[in-house]
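Notebook entry, structure prediction.
Reason for the run: the old model in the group folder had no record of what sequence produced it. Starting over properly, with the input documented here first.
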Amino acid sequence: MFFTNINLKANTFKSLAIATSLLGVIFIILAGYIGNLTIRIAMVVAIVVFILNIKMTYHYSGKLKKFTDIMCLIGAIVVFIFPQLVVFIIGIALMYFSGIALFQMVKSGDYDDKIKLIVSIIGVIFSIFCIFNASGTLELVIRLIGALLLAIGCICFFQYVTKSRQANDVQTQDHKFEDNEKIIEVQEIIDVKEEE
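New structure, fully documented this time:
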């Protein structure tokens, strides 16, 4: 369960559950916009950092450093214009690393590490998906994150309901009478007097 080590009140669980669930629903519904917006915000920050870096170190840098800084700035501007390039680049990098690991395993014939084999195969498949369907992959990842947030929100709401019920059970146990037999006898005496 989530947040079990943290001592939170029941209303805090309720607020956390509602906020997380709403965020998950927003991620699912607006997946295309959220992915592009997030990448563009990150690229604005990167552009500002690269411009400040160039401005502060340009006179003291060598030719290679100047070239690298300018290429990073151009890359950030290009990714700002085309956010799907991030997924395409991630796909290429994933293909490189997963492909090398898979190739080395096949070449050596060593299939003892099953987890590494499965992760490498899944990495190659996902990288192909990233390369050939960059915009769809970005939306899919954002929707998966939204579904995860929605599930966490539902679990938090379940914890809220459980914690509320436990609190109510403790309150009702505190108010129970200890001498139930005497109460029943008094009630019987009252019933007999009413009948007369």
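Summary: Residues 134-174 form the longest helix (41 residues).
The old model has been moved to the deprecated folder.
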